Amino acid sequence: MTNVRMYSTAGCPYCQRAEMLLKSKGVAEIEKIRIDLDPVRRDEMMEKTGRRTVPQIYINTLHVGGFDDLAALDRAGKLDPLLRGGS
Question: Which of 22, 28, 31, 49 gives 5 a disulfide partner, CB atoms 3.0 to 4.6 angstroms apart?
């Protein structure tokens, strides 16, 4: 089973677009980590990813980046295999 984790904030349009794209690919559950509600989680995200913006998306243990990165993976035909557990 693929584990998808996304650091996000309320009302973030790129977070919403990422969620829509992932759901269109059959992802049933996304673990959302709301960094606007928990500053410690924001610090955790920045330390792990080196980025300050949301969303920051992980598929299993791989950090794929933000929405633009996720969409680029999809356009390159690499998102579906990744969601199926490949690389």
Answer: 31
